[in-house]
TrEMBL record:
Chain segments annotated as coiled-coil in the UniProt record: none
InterPro entries membership: Flavoprotein-like_sf (IPR029039), FMN_Rdtase-like_dom (IPR005025), NAD(P)H-dep_reductase (IPR050712)
EC number: 1.-.-.-
GO molecular function: oxidoreductase activity
EC top class, as a word: oxidoreductase
Domain of life: Bacteria
Protein name, per record: NAD(P)H-dependent oxidoreductase
Amino acid sequence: MEILIFAGSTRQDSYNRKLAKAAAEIATGQGAQATLLELADYDIPLYNADLEARGTPPDVIRFKQALHSHAAWIICCPEYNGSYPALLKNALDWASSPVKGDPVWGDGVLPFRGKVVGMCSASPGGLGGLRAQSHLAPLLLNLECWLAPRSHAVSRAADAFDAQGQLMYPQDQQGVQAVLSQVLWAAQRLHA
Ligand code: FNR
């Protein structure tokens, strides 16, 4: 089973990127083939329907293709002001916009329907980005993703990773493992 993992941050020392890398290692250990996607590699402008009407930007098409070609995703989500960052919302809005004759999704009005998604988050605070997850979940469910019941939030993220970027604490390793187990379980049943 192939799984796409990405962080909603382009910050150089992003905790969520570290979390995405840790999740990829855990996924590999669970027998999955993990692909790490880096949003900084995609030049995605702010969504504007007029811009889209003139032609979907090439990097948006590349991002859609990455999402389309994976049945299962893990999103590692930062928390800004109790919600998820504009960067992530913008990328997901572009990717899920129903474009007539879309070269990636076709004519479906719900391009993400049936995608199996797990949410993780990391933040320096005590809740670890849980409130961002609580806002991201309705977006994903609205698009009819299959959202894993388990999620994991890494709190006090400044102290949660070692110098190699590995998750230091068993509760975080086990939490991410649990999310991945559910995502892979569901993806095998829905997309095998
Ligand atoms: C934050 N941060 C933050 N953290 C948190 O736990 N709850 C919050 O509501 C907020 N709010 C917030 C607003 C804004 C505008 C910024 C810039 C930051 C801190 C945030 O979690 C921290 O910057 C993380 O390091 C962001 O994730 P990455 O980039 O490290 O993955």
